[in-house]
Amino acid sequence: MHGLSRLGTGSNRSVSPSPPSSPRFRHGRYKNFAGGGGGVGRGGKQSAANKIVFVLISTVFRRKGVLLFAPLLRSPPGSVYRSPQLFQKLWPHMEAESNATHNALMTAWNLKMHQGWKPCVNSIISKTGFSELPKSNGFLIIEANGGLNQQRLSICDAVVVAWLLNATLVIPIFHLNSVWRDSSKFGDIFDEEFFIHALRNHVNVVRELPEDVLQRFDNNISNIVNLRVKGWSSAAHYIQKVLPKLEAMGAVRIAPFSNRLAYSVPSNVQGVRCLSNFQALRFAEPIRTLADKMVERMVMNSSHSGGKYVSVHLRFETDMVAFSCCEYDGGEEEKREMDIARERSWRGKFRRRGRVIRPGANRMDGKCPLTPLEVGLMLRGMGFNNNTSVFVAAGNIYKAEKYMAPLKQMFPLLETKNTLTTPEELAPFKGHSSRLAALDYTVCLHSEVFVTTQGGNFPHFLMGHRRYLFGGHAKTIKPDKRKLALLFDSPHIRWETFRRQMKDMLRHSDVKGGELKKPSGSVYTFPMPDCMCKQTEAAANESSLSF
User: What residue spans carry the region label Disordered (predicted)?
Assistant: First the structure.
């Protein structure tokens, strides 16, 4: 007979037309245009006139042919990085508006149009939870890999699985990733004691396996059976397949544990996810202390705008540019550097037989990382003026001196974690990408406007966290990169047209800010309605949660 489990009973279960075919010229159509006859008089004059007409028509057709085929002489859309030319054309218009009093920072979000939401995690979990923790069915050990927010996802899902199985969760082990290269342990990034305490009424968490349990496996954690769980497995799968092995052996490992639990699970299970992510996981004290100082400094730097600032998650590091297989304006040197970076991090993956890399197609499909220049163009077009304080969250930007210069030109009040802190303050975090990312995460979390440029776990978790904090609205600009690619590939576009397109994009982000979770969506990005209630409902359930 299986031990007690907590599987809930609820269930959450313009194509562009083809271009016209090219015109075909039928050669020889005019070969008899000049009439025959060898007479000199009227026939000779007619022959001469016919020859002149023939030459004129031939010339016109040749010119028409050139015009018709001129588009084919231009490089295919997206194959050339034209944003610098667009910047040169639009910069005078931006300068002319530098002293404009209106700043989109103050009016970016129309919060009146969004229904206010409040966190109500505890009431959701308590609907089907137990009044006290039942006897544990054994110990669950998981290994989290990837960067900061991939680890965060694994941790939160591990809490859910432990809750489902009535297992005791051992503080997750962090795998040293070949890309992130961060040797930090759980306690270096997250507050271990707070995590254990916050979950005490829902999941039992221990720092390490008890000595007597470890001795049963010859004091070697590798001797504990490692269950290969398929990605996106259902809650029922864990009850049916994992629970019997847990009860039989007293301890199981699941490594790796990346994306091993389906997004679509019962609502009370989603509640445990939110409890773990939004309440139990907070950064370690050294990270919180410096991050809070950074937020305070950004607010002080933004006093002219009521302490409001813009944060940008800029994914233009060497590895990201290399992985995207996009081309910019660095020529052969850039291609050589990207080839080296791809081989260093993904040995042979991009050289497999049959793999075709199409940089232009990638750009037009919105898959290329936005450059700092492109982010600046977008924001200035949206109406953020040069008095806007901007925080850039990023790793080591590829050729930073070159690519960051135009962004600083458009936004002089620009900060990064390197400029916002002293070398002494930042020194303990150097060489630890996840701890540095935690600093960026916190500053972005508290900005008035957050801009995501390339997707990934960092913006997805931030958008959800911001919705949880800001009454259900993400306050996030998520640009249409396919549309941007077309606009950036149009160096002759008028400033008025470009600005109108950008303002439309900002309005679209405002509308999408309060989006509810779809059945297949992630509660980490869309916490409504599984982990938040409309304000009238929240008042009846519980008071607003603190962080």
Answer: 1-45
Helix (H) or strand (E) holding 59: helix 42-73
Asked whether residue 28 carries a pLDDT value surpassing 60, the answer given is no
CB 433 within 8 A of CB 182: yes
Long-range own/partner contacts, residues 222-228 (CB < 8 A, 24 or more apart): 224/141, 224/249, 224/251, 224/252, 224/253, 225/249, 225/252, 225/253, 226/252, 226/253, 226/254, 226/255, 227/252, 227/253, 227/254
How open is the CA angle 262-264-269, to the nearest 5 degrees? 90
Token pair in block for residue 42: 């009227």
Strands 532-534 and 117-119: antiparallel
Q: Note the helical H segments in 302-447.
A: 318-324, 331-345, 359-364, 372-382, 400-410, 417-420, 423-426, 433-445
Contacts of 42 by beta carbon, 8 Å cutoff, 6+ apart: none
Cβ atoms within 10 Å, residue 89 = 16
* Residue-wise pLDDT tens digits, 377-389: 999 999 999 999 9
Q: What is the pLDDT of residues 170-201, one digit of tens each?
A: 999 998 776 667 899 999 999 999 999 999 99
- How far, in Å, CA of 451 to CA of 459, rounded? 9
Distance CA 334, CA 321 (A): 10
d(CA 134, CA 4): 8
Quote the tokens at residue 294.
């950074």
- Determine the Cα–Cα distance for residues 371 and 83; give it in Å rounded to an integer: 9
Please name which of 260, 283, 280 lies closest in space to residue 272, comparing C-alpha atoms.
Answer: 280
Q: Which residues, in sequence order, are CB contacts of 401 under 8 Å at separation 6+?
A: none
* C-alpha–C-alpha distance, residues 254 and 165, integer Å: 14
